[in-house]
Each structure stands twice: as C-alpha cells, then as structure tokens.
Amino acid sequence: MNDTQAWNWEHAAAVLPELLEGLQITILATVVGMVIASVLGLLVAIVRRSRLRVVTFPIGFLVEFIRSTPLLVQLVFANLLFTQFPSLAIGCVVLGVHYATYMSEVYRAGIDAVPKGQWEAAIALDLPRSRTWGAVVLPQAIRNTLPGLGNYAISMFKETPFLFAIAVVEMYTAAQQYGAETFRYMEAITMAGLLFLLVSYPTSLLVRRLENRLA
Amino acid sequence: MPENDTTPAIQFQGVGKRFGDNVVLDGLDFSVAKGDRVTLIGPSGSGKTTILRLLMTLEEANDGLIYVDGDPYTHEMRGDKRVAIPEKRRSLVRRRVGMVFQQFNLFPNMTVLENIIEAPIHVLGKPKAEAIASAEALLDKVGLADKRDARTTQLSGGQQQRVAIARSLAMEPEILLLDEVTSSLDPELVADVLGVLRNIAETTDITMLIVTHEMQFAREVSNRVLMFDGGKIIEEAAPDTIFTSPTHERTKEFLRAIL
C-alpha cells in the first residue's frame, strides 16, 4: 500500500462503517432538530400574531437575536452553559431553536396566505378560537408550509457538521477522526461529502415533487 | 317567544361606522321585524354591506347600539357610557345570526358534509349522528345530496354557494344575512342559488337581510326594500312600490342605472 498516492480505495472503503455510524447521529440530530423547529416555530408564529406588545416584543427580539448570531457560536455557547447535558442533546436543541426562528417565518407566510374569508366564515359560524385555528386555519396554512419545512430540513442536515465544534460524533466528526488516525483525510472527507449528497439530493427531489403537487 | 311578540329581530340605534376619514354609516336608525325579508339596495359604498358585516361582528360600530331580538349585541349603555360587551356574551347573540358570503368561504380542507356539521357539533354541541342527519336533510333541500362526500374545490360556484347556504342553515339561525350571494357566479348558475333561497323564504320564518343586485329576486322574496345612499336610508317601501314608482330622485337614478 502506497501512502503517498492521492487517492486510496482501500481507505475509502475502510472509513465507510465509521461514516455510516456517524450518519445515524447526523440523521438523528436532523430529525429531532426539525421536530423541535416545527413545533416551536409554529408556536412562535402564533404568539407573534398576538396584539399584546408585552408578548410580541420580547419574542420578536429573541427571534432577531438568534437569527443574527452564528449557529456555531450558539452551539459552543450552549455547550459551555449547560455542561450537565450530553452534547448531542444540546446540539439537537440548538439546531431546533435556531431553525425555529426560520420556520416561524414559513408558518407566518402560510397563515397569512389563508384567505380572510376563511376567518370571517369561522366568525359567522361562531367557531371558538381553538377550532378556528385547529380545524380551519392551520390545516390550510401547514399545507402551504410543507415545502419550506422540507427545504429547511435539508439545510439543517447539511449544517450538522457544526456539531463537530461540541464533539458530537456525527458523520463529519467521524471523518475527521478517521483522518486524524490515518492521515487519509482526502478519502474520509470525500466519502462523507458523497454520503451527504446521497441523502440530501434525493430528499430535495422529493421536496420538489411535493411542491409541485401542492402548487 | 310569545305569538305576537313585537320586539324587532334587528334594531340599529344611531349606528355610526367610519373607516379612517370615510364615514360609511352616520347615525343610522332602523329596525327589522321578525320574519321580515328586507332587501338593501343602493350604490356601492352606500353602507349596505357594512350593515351586514356589523351584524356578523366582522366590523365594529364606532357609535350607537345594535340589538338582536331585544338583546344588546356588541355594545350597551352603562349609565350614559357606551361600553363594549365581552366576547362571551357577543357569541351567544352571534349564534342566532348566520351569513352567506359573496365568495362562499367554504373550508377547502373539509368535505361538503364536514363543512356543514363543523359548527353544529363544535358550537351547538350537537351529537355527531344528529348533526349528520340534519346536514343530509339540508343537502337534500339545496339539491346536493349526492355531493355529501365531495371536496368543496370539486364543486361549481353555484354548488359551493348552495353548500354555504346549507352550512349557515345548519346553525338554525333566526336571522340570515345574504351578502351579494350571486355576484360572483356565472349567469347560468344564479338561478339555482336563487331557487334555493326562494324555497327557504317560503318554507321558514327566518328573518332575512339581503344585499343584492338581483332586483327580480328582491321583488319576489322581500317584503320591504331600503334604499341607501351615503350611509343613510333615503327611501323605504314595499318592493312593488319602490321598483315601479320610486319617489326619491336618487332611487330613480339608481334603479335606472341597474335595471
């Protein structure tokens, strides 16, 4: 085996099992992160529609704050602050909260796109607020938000390598570790990149199909 | 309700409504007796639709009081101060008022049947089986029994509007507000919707407030016509009188323009 050659297929194969293990963590972080982002984003969108400035102002400030600071900084900061929690849990929550601020805008657009007449019909039928939201507005609004949700899921998936900074062994960290042990960074990083592509590209095709079907 | 109850179904007392500097209604007084079918006519911007929207609490009056069957609706006098009535009490009055919209406003995420049973179940607390049974009877009445499980988006405009009528009737309203219900329909679909409304007018004693440009329909169904201009009633008469021999110059002009 000649270690000076630029590309070594044996290393490319050897790194795969470790990458696949890392990929599981990557996917886990993305799924948990997206669940948090979807639920929290919806809550933020609904609360921000309130007319009470004591409610909307602090939430608005928090959203702007999170959106204006880098994800990487937030990860490291939260990891330093909450040392009692496992890094993976912190990573999932920070990803989720970060993306919730973006998801809330997607929801807001989805809610705004529900015609005014729908709200008026709900008033005319004297539906309670909870039914108006739960049975009339949100089912229509969420339909509008599904493509946005898909796109942010892909985007979050591709940002999971930031978890490297807080020592969560997702796929990119696994590649780095293999590189550090064997000095074959090229194979490890290339294979990790290919695996990212292998997951995100088909997903993006799926999202596009969903977009076309809903349009 | 006593047999010869003379409390008006609807009463406006000095009702004013402004949108910014634009005065839409100015100290409006009028009342509608129970079982009356009143058509509001007048040029656009004369305040007719605003009256319906006030009665549905889609807009809020700036001055004056509105009574439904003698009950204060959105505001009441406490001493000599006009105070807003809390939502809980408004809701009890609102429940007695139904509205059919120009744009139908059916819920597209529900089937035809689900649209009709939603409020009876979740507002009136009817058992589901009972709500479905009366919804089916209503669908039969509007001639759409076979569309029970259809998506509303699969229906024509005329069919959607008939479902919307059934949906508002399912709440068993005492007062039905019809806001230009045929204005966004293709001409060949208007007759079906008007037929359904004529049937309701003949077979129920629901008080109806109608804003429409279908003068023939207004003539057949209503027993009173109010001509609005600039947020005031300028003429009121039985339909035969107002359509054949209007007295006010503005009424003559208006009728000439649309007939």
Automatic annotation (TrEMBL), chain A:
Entry-linked CDD domains: TM_PBP2 (cd06261)
Gene3D superfamilies: MetI-like
Taxonomy, superkingdom: Bacteria
InterPro entries linked to this entry: AA_ABC_transptr_permease_3TM, ArtM/GltK/GlnP/TcyL/YhdX-like, Ectoine_EhuD, MetI-like, MetI-like_sf
Record domain ABC transmembrane type-1: where: 23-207
Keyword set, alphabetical order: Amino-acid transport, Cell membrane, Membrane, Transmembrane, Transmembrane helix, Transport
TM regions (residue ranges): 25-47, 54-77, 83-102, 162-179, 185-207
Cellular compartments annotated: Cell membrane
Entries under Pfam families matching the protein: BPD_transp_1
Record membrane topology: Multi-pass membrane protein
Family: Belongs to the binding-protein-dependent transport system permease family.
UniProt protein name: Ectoine/hydroxyectoine ABC transporter permease subunit EhuD
High-level lineage: Bacteria, Bacillati, Actinomycetota, Actinomycetes, Micrococcales
Automatic annotation (TrEMBL), chain B:
Gene Ontology molecular function, alphabetical: ATP binding
Keyword Zinc annotated: no
Domain ABC transporter: start-end pairs: 10-255
UniProt subcellular location: Cell membrane
Main location per the UniProt record: membrane
Record Gene3D superfamilies: P-loop containing nucleotide triphosphate hydrolases (3.40.50.300)
InterPro entries: AAA+_ATPase, ABC_ATPase_HisP-typ, ABC_transporter-like_ATP-bd, ABC_transporter-like_CS, MetN_ABC_transporter-like, P-loop_NTPase
Coiled-coil intervals, chain numbering: none
One Pfam match: ABC_tran
Key words, A-Z: Amino-acid transport, ATP-binding, Cell membrane, Membrane, Nucleotide-binding, Transport
Keyword Ribosomal protein: no
Family in the record: Belongs to the ABC transporter superfamily.
PANTHER family, per the entry: AMINO ACID IMPORT ATP-BINDING PROTEIN, GLUTAMATE_ASPARTATE IMPORT ATP-BINDING PROTEIN GLTL
Descriptive protein name: Ectoine/hydroxyectoine ABC transporter ATP-binding protein EhuA
Species of the source: Promicromonospora umidemergens
Gene that specifies this protein: ehuA
